[in-house]
Specification:
The protein is 7% helix and 45% strand. By secondary structure, the chain is mainly β. Strand 5 and strand 6 form a beta hairpin. 41% of the residues are buried.
Length: 347
């Protein structure tokens, strides 16, 4: 009987379906913005990714998560129904380590040098909390059998576009390039232009991210290209003063245009042609930074955000083609450091 009891007690602590307490800690001396988008990444190994992305290495929990994240939800109360908006980005591959990645909306943010505790529930693999609890439980649009069916990005991020449908969303305009909409945006580089958002101007600190793929490149010297950035005028290539460019070729490089000056590096490869990746651009009164799949790849301190600007969405060099699944704007973590988190079985 004693051995059987020990087995039951051990099973309680290794069985990963059920309730977990998630403690999120802001180690910085300033609070996060409110609302704040916190990433929750459950991985099957360790990452070398920097401080802008939070994760835990727990293969046991990772293996209990459905392939499209449908059996997980988040709430503020133990045993409660979901009341925290969560958006499942997908199972990302970071150089052979896989992570299930969620973004959750913390409406009150996290105070400086403080922590908050929420709860994560993992159901069995047959559970589908998207259909049961949408819009509190949602997923990236490409993960749905019907594109965007359970996409709740508009409830999680400050601004969000999934380009669902066959036409441009209100406020988006294209310039020069051939653009088509079919549950995402395909940009064919006819004249080296880009598409951009003109219906609204922004101000202050901004963090822009998009999920994009280089479908085809024109040649080894004329690359396919994805881009995000800001401009102060109705955009043209010359007037764009801050841009993050991800280039593809035989030897992929990542280029940056800061205040009209090209800077390049060959030390980081973004993604091979034909695979998706996330590029990010951050700008504030103190500087700018470019990220590839959440890893910092370039920054500068010589920058001042103008009083108002437009968002530059994406670009394709002449003869090349790129595809964008979604674009979002989220809060920048204090000092670029994403609050860390820990997970333990809830009592």
């Amino acid at each position: 009987f004693g051995i059987f009891l020990v087995f039951i007690l051990l099973a309680k602590f290794i069985y990963s379906q059920g309730w977990y307490a998630v403690t999120i800690t802001n180690s910085q001396s300033s609070s996060t913005p409110a609302p704040f988008q916190q990433d929750i990444a459950i991985c099957n190994g360790t990452l070398n990714i920097g401080s802008s992305f939070a994760y835990i290495n727990n293969a046991t929990i990772f293996n209990q998560i459905d392939s499209n994240g449908q059996n997980v939800y988040f709430t503020t109360t133990y045993g409660g129904s979901p009341n925290i908006y969560s958006w499942y980005e997908g199972q990302e591959n970071f150089n052979g380590t896989y992570c299930d990645v969620w973004w959750i909306n913390l409406s009150n943010g996290i105070p400086a040098n403080s922590n908050v505790t929420i709860y994560m529930y993992i159901g069995n693999s047959s559970s589908n909390y998207y259909s049961q609890y949408y819009p509190y439980v949602g997923e990236s649009p490409q993960l749905s059998s019907t594109y965007g069916q359970y996409d709740n990005g508009q409830d999680v991020f400050n601004y969000y576009w999934n380009f669902n449908g066959t036409s441009a969303p209100s406020g988006w305009t294209q310039n020069l390039d051939s653009v088509s909409y079919d549950n995402g945006v395909t940009i064919s580089g006819d004249n080296g232009g880009y598409w951009y958002y003109t219906g609204k101007t922004f101000s202050g600190t901004i963090l822009i991210e998009e999920m994009m793929e280089v479908i085809d490149q024109a040649s080894t010297t004329n690359y396919g290209e994805g881009a995000v950035g800001l401009t102060t005028t109705s955009p043209s290539w010359i007037s764009t003063f801050s841009l993050t460019r991800v280039l593809e070729g035989t030897n992929p490089i990542i280029g940056y245009i800061f205040d009209g000056n090209d800077e390049t590096t060959t030390s980081i490869e973004f993604e091979p042609v034909g695979t998706f990746g996330i590029i990010s651009f951050y700008a504030s009164s103190s500087g700018m930074a470019a990220y590839s799949n959440y890893q910092l790849i370039q920054s500068t301190n010589s920058y001042t955000v103008p009083s108002s600007y437009y968002i530059v969405g994406c670009n394709a060099d002449s003869g090349a083609k790129v595809f964008v699944q979604w674009l979002r704007i989220r809060a920048y973590p204090p000092n670029g450091v994403m609050p860390s988190f820990s997970v333990q079985l809830a009592a």
